[in-house]
Amino acid sequence: SKPIVAIVGRPNVGKSTFFNYLAGKRISIVEDTPGVTRDRIYTEVEWRNRKFTLIDTGGIEPYSEDKIMKQMKNQAEIAIETADVIIFMVDMKDGLTASDREVATMLRKSKKPIILAVNKVDKVGELPAEVYEFYNLGMDNLMPISSIHGLGVGDLLDEVFKYF
Ligand code: GDP
Ligand code: MG
After folding, report:
1. Residue nearest to atom 17 of ligand 1 (CA)
2. Is the CB of 33 under 6 A from ligand 1?
3. Quick one: which of 75, 82, 125, 136 has the most CB atoms within 10 Å?
4. Where does GTP 1 bind (predicted)?
């Protein structure tokens, strides 16, 4: 069967935007309101003649006691268990947050291969200094991307395929 890749991260970092970019259509809901992806959503992705299944998840907000957030956290945990590779998404515009650190801790426990996607790096050229802050998460596989423009997405997928 095809390898499974899950996109995980706190709300509003751009997971659904990335998912929709690869799906080639708006399957997953993109909202400025955090946490609108309530279910796991699947799409088949083909890249350089190879296929995988991509799962979008609702955002994980580790500190939240809110019921919907808890449900979404469960959904994300199931997706993490199912996945062969995890794309851990963070948001350059917000910088590194406490929630990002919590998600990182949770992901490390899964022992799955993790690629750290620093999203919202919308300009080509030299990497903005803000990107380097995310090396504090202790993950060596860092890829800057812009899900809106599709920048860096090909390079990210090449990294993903290294684990299949
Ligand atoms: P999710 O909660 O992680 O699924 O995030 P969404 O995909 O719903 O996106 C949250 C917000 O970030 C929306 O307003 C998106 O338009 C915006 N966004 C997503 N990707 C990018 C990006 O690459 N650059 C910029 N500037 N904004 C983005
Ligand atoms: Mg979403």
Report:
1. 14
2. no
3. 75
4. 9-16, 56-60, 119-122
